[in-house]
Automatic annotation (TrEMBL), chains A, B:
Keyword Acyltransferase attributed: no
InterPro entries: FAD-bd_oxidored_4_C (IPR004113), FAD-bd_PCMH (IPR016166), FAD-bd_PCMH-like_sf (IPR036318), FAD-bd_PCMH_sub2 (IPR016169), FAD-linked_Oxase-like_C (IPR016164), FAD-linked_OxidoTrans_Type4 (IPR051914), Oxid_FAD_bind_N (IPR006094), Vanillyl_alc_oxidase_C-sub2 (IPR016171)
Name by which UniProt lists this protein: FAD-binding oxidoreductase
UniProtKB keywords: FAD, Flavoprotein, Oxidoreductase
Tagged with keyword Flavoprotein: yes
Span of domain FAD-binding PCMH-type: 38-217
Cofactor: FAD
């Protein structure tokens, strides 16, 4: 159908400022932060403020069989929010109201465009805590977090986004409104459709309202850094920490390549001869005592130095190195591919050492930082995008890292999602029966296949 | 098809002792513990020991279009495991192996027939904790817990079964094997089909293996009892406890009717003039201090007496009254109907007082015990099954209690499930769009409708 007709039909149910048709502006909505994934050109970008406006868009899209790509802040790392040619992009960023915060029920009700950090600060004023904290938390939206089922640093103690989403309002492909889940602490009435939408990358419906479970705010966390002479020793310490029942609120690992990159960028004076740095934190009533016990485990497993912070400011300084990791690795070469392989904790050392072997084989720089307590590694493949051979080797190593993860009983994505980046790998992980059942679910919600087509599978 | 043919086809792929065809023995598998729900007569009962045997049954059932009803220990309270006429009952109780317990990965891998208490004790030997603890935990199976998404006393701190199921092997309606989820701490590869099966009451497939997340074993819990002059005061205390960030491992409420029934049965000397008894426990490093703080909140909200236990034995004595509640209420009249309405915590008082009003209106004895911290009430309607009018009033009050729960923003079932008991109510809670999407999911997994037909919707 001609572009003008589509835009006219959309305009009929939208306020003037909700429809972007200028091709240059629309093009700026073409992709998320996985820049190297293919992205098409949207026919229109809609910035709705109400549920009814989203419903109008979906009714129009269904009538015209036009694909729709829902977007949050486009901080994703898998291309899941990338436009397809001729699609309608629905950016939910203007639906950014916090509708309710209840300390008694320990829930918040929000629109999808609320920024993670805005919500986190708002609930903190009520003595509450919304744990999920992806790296992009200052800019990413709750709707995007739900779409990608995102994680963060806190998962080792608090789990991922999925565990905090208990109810949803979803505009379906045909424009109808579906309400799932509950506001109550428990509820088992029918199939858990709420959870089905979490991580569905906009392929089953558009989330327009979410009921989120909250926790009481814990004490401010206190951190520790421990230097290890090998990743194997650091990973053995991680396993022992978890096996012995410690409950850190953060347990992160940086390898030597990452340490060097951070030093090169920020002159932090990190120990470059150290093969692995472990960062741990506790948000318990007596974090110093808990850190001392965890530090003792590190020493037992060969840590050459254990540095506990004395106060929250010192903690933040220790954690700054971790927070800079990705940016620092991105500065090593002109391009990076960030992997997100999660393995059983007991296989963490095998995963990291195997990644080092892949880097060596392909003569590439691959830095690994990991949510070590979860077994969730982020190997960052650094390469020169202008060098065709290096780019090819980067892609090969990226794939070999996922193959290694599956071999070790892991998954191709712990928290970043599938998008377009890992479509073929999803099929490998799920196998033919799994893939068929996933497609069956997709067809039940989106029989015309207009919701974010070409993503996931 | 003739019964003999069905049995012969089943026998072809099963060892002799796996097939029960004796009508009397088969009839003993007709229903779960919701005895007053309709139950049919099974054509055969299969007791498989292997995945292949379950696959054989499902292939046979698909070929013959015969309904299949999966069963665990049949301790459910909604008729979800009740046989339908001419069905094949698949009892998973013989698939009872614990396949793996990993303290490092904090997971257990089990067959569905493992009894909850057996698993709990086995993981405790490794310093681990499998929290879900339905009342029937000494006899109910993990497969049944997964089918009904069951809860228990620990949910206020540890959540429900769903939160501990991270991967499944499922035999589909056509006999194919589907593997969902993961063994890793995190994973977002595709739609969360694992969670879809939890609470699906055997209507989407037969779970033959489960990967369960475990927690480190906490200290033994210490309990406290607090007597209140009104349920409103007790509920206000519950709200304040949760609002102020206390994290009890148990927070239960018994109303006056329940207290009287327990006294009548066990002569426990519970205070019958008390309108509500609150029981709380902590499994923290310093439970006495935490109980003292919680006790102070109870006093602030009008508790006339606060009795903290000095040791675990005394705790168990306090909790015994709660554990006896259901049995004691069942002894009041010849029959009971156990409701399971969960409301937002802030509406708990309205729910309990509303239930008392319903009891008075219908001139019935309705005792309420509640997982108060979750807002999950169990009103137990006591009636004489031989008295037609009283039975009618019991059914009416049972329904009015659910209507009240929905009015208060709650759900018709917090942990018992829908089964046949609450089918019509599920439709009311979900609404037409919700119901249609649920049916769509069902059709995607079970196009012939042979898996536990007539349950849920």
């Amino acid at each position: 159908m001609p572009l003008d007709d589509l835009q006219a039909l959309l305009r009929a149910g939208l306020p003037d400022d909700a429809l972007v048709t200028d091709p240059d502006v629309a093009a700026s909505y073409a992709h998320d932060m996985a820049g190297f994934c293919a992205a098409g050109t949207p026919a229109a970008v809609v910035l709705p403020r109400t549920v009814e406006q989203v419903q109008h868009v979906m009714r129009t899209a269904t009538a015209l069989r036009v694909p729709v790509v829902p977007q949050g802040a486009r901080t994703g790392l898998s291309g899941a929010a990338n436009a397809t040619d001729g699609c309608i992009v629905v950016s939910l960023t203007r639906m950014d109201r916090i509708l309710d915060i209840s300390p008694v029920d320990r829930v918040a009700v929000v629109e999808p465009g609320v920024v993670n950090a805005v919500l986190s600060r708002a609930v903190a004023e009520h003595g509450l805590f919304y744990p999920p904290d992806p790296s992009s938390w200052e800019t990413c939206t709750i709707g995007g977090n739900i779409g990608t089922a995102s994680g963060g640093l806190c998962c080792v103690k608090y789990g991922v986004t999925a565990e905090y989403v208990i109810g949803l309002d979803v505009v379906l492909a045909d424009g109808r409104l579906l309400r799932t889940g509950r506001r109550t602490a428990k509820g088992v009435a029918g199939y858990d459709l709420t959870r089905l939408f979490v991580g569905s990358e906009g392929s089953l419906g558009i989330v327009v309202r979410a009921v989120l479970a909250l926790k009481p705010a814990p004490p401010v966390q206190l951190a520790l850094a421990a230097e290890f002479p090998s990743t194997a020793a650091a990973c053995a310490a991680v396993c022992a920490i978890m096996e012995r029942g410690h409950a850190p609120s953060l347990l992160e690992l940086m390898d030597r390549t990452t340490l060097r990159a951070v030093n090169a960028m920020a002159r932090m004076g990190l120990p470059e001869t150290t093969e692995a740095l472990l960062l741990a934190a506790f948000d318990t009533p007596d974090p110093a005592a808990d850190l001392a016990a965890l530090g003792a485990v590190c020493t037992e497993f060969g840590a050459t130095e254990v540095v506990p912070a004395d106060d929250p400011a010192e903690s933040e300084l220790l954690l700054k190195a971790r927070r800079l990791s990705l940016t620092a690795l991105e500065a090593v070469k002109s391009a990076t591919m960030i992997d997100d392989v999660c393995v059983p904790r007991s296989k963490l050392a095998a995963m990291i050492d195997g990644t080092a072997a892949i880097a060596e084989k392909h003569d590439l720089t691959i830095g690994v930082c990991a949510h070590a307590g979860d077994g969730n590694t982020h190997p960052v493949v650094c390469f020169d995008a202008a060098d065709a051979d290096e780019s090819r080797r980067a892609r090969e190593s990226f794939d070999e890292i996922m193959a290694l993860g599956l071999e070790l009983g892991g998954t191709i994505t712990g928290e970043h999602g599938v998008g377009v980046l890992k479509k073929e790998w999803l099929a490998r992980e799920l196998g033919p029966v799994g893939l068929e059942m996933q497609r069956g679910v997709k067809a039940a919600f989106d029989p015309l296949g207009i919701l974010n087509p070409g993503k996931l599978f």
